[in-house]
Amino acid sequence: MEIILVQELIAFLQFSGFAxxxxxxxxxxxxxxxNDCDDPQANLxxxxxxxxxxxxxxxxxxxxVEKNLQQNKETVLSVPSSSNSFDGSILLTxxxxxxxELQQKEFSLPxxxxxxxxxMPDTYNGQPLSKAVFYSRKVSSCHAIIHVLHGELIITDTSxxxxxxxxxxxxxxxxxxxxxxxxxxxxxxITVTLLTGDGGTEIxxx
Length: 206
Known about the structure:
The chain has 4 helices and 14 strands. It is of the alpha+beta class. The longest helix is centred in the N-terminal third of the chain and has 17 residues, at about 20-35. The N and C termini lie far apart (about 35 Å).
């Protein structure tokens, strides 16, 4: 099966000014196309027709996909099927709320997101935690944990203000995460991409 650099597509959509809900819909449509199509590069017109239901700018998106397929890059990201259990790492993509600079980082799981590194635990259920520190007063010290439970990717909100996932508020509870989901941890808007392979434990201070 052909492979697409999904993280680059997300960055392209964000740079092009697509809204968060549109990015999620487009990524889901592209994922389904690659899962269903034996020869994606030969049937890109079909993808363009599918994307027309979400945006009038389907042409430039398909051109971007085609360009990435033709480049045949070495470092690639397969699009995981939603029916399979998740076993990999995740890529978080966001814009700095001050500079609007695009940021991306790959994390192994489990991952904790919060404001204060010193208050974050080092392990979760006996596993080392990756840590992403977002310095904003609106982000709780330990805001949320992303982990794998029974083969599925789960986000657990542990914050005061809650975490918005695709326009739905999650507060002190858990929910399944899917490829292309958009998290809003005010003031950050973060797109989640599922990756295959082991990204290693990381600490990221933003």
